[in-house]
Design brief:
about 25% helix; about 120 residues; binds the ligand Nc1nc2c(c(=O)[nH]1)N=C([C@H](O)[C@H](O)COP(=O)(O)OP(=O)(O)OP(=O)(O)O)CN2; alpha+beta; binds zinc ion; Tetrahydropterin Synthase, Chain A; single chain
Length: about 120
């Protein structure tokens, strides 16, 4: 069984390695959407793969670090592409959520990165 919980945050960033002529070299912001995907057996008693409240508890502290922050200043996010934000989130919540199967980070409704740990 697969389950997903979505979160949202607003943040500023710039991409330092794209070259000065690329518009994303300049400071700008996005309304990010994050989808946390888990996969596992449904517990017979609870009926849950994982309680959504537990997913919220695992991701909440990261959300506080991301929301309304300048991403480039966060340790490990000096080059905050959607891909590297997805890896950053995955690596930090996997120890708390062993059933974690993937993290999607949407910069816009049309552009996202999907990391499954590989
Ligand atoms: N593979 C990736 N490519 C790009 C990334 C990324 O993270 N991974 N990031 C960017 C920039 O962050 C850029 O700001 C993306 O914004 P864009 O897609 O241009 O969306 P906008 O809403 O700003 O654009 P509109 O066309 O005006 O809607 C670039 N590439
Ligand atoms: Zn951007």
């Amino acid at each position: 069984m697969k389950i997903t919980q979505a979160f949202h945050f607003e943040a500023a960033h710039r991409l330092p390695h794209v070259g000065e002529k690329h518009r994303c070299y300049r400071l700008h912001g996005h309304s990010y959407r994050v989808e946390v995907n888990l996969e596992g057996a449904v517990d017979q008693r609870s009926g849950f793969v994982v309680d959504f409240f537990d997913i919220e508890a695992a991701f909440g502290p990261l959300l506080e670090r991301l929301d309304h922050h300048y991403l480039n200043e966060i340790e490990g996010l000096e080059n905050p592409t959607a891909e590297l934000i997805a890896v950053w989130i995955f690596d930090r919540i996997k120890p708390k959520l062993p059933q974690l199967a993937g993290v999607k980070v949407f910069e816009t409704p049309d552009c996202w990165a999907d990391y499954d740990g590989a």
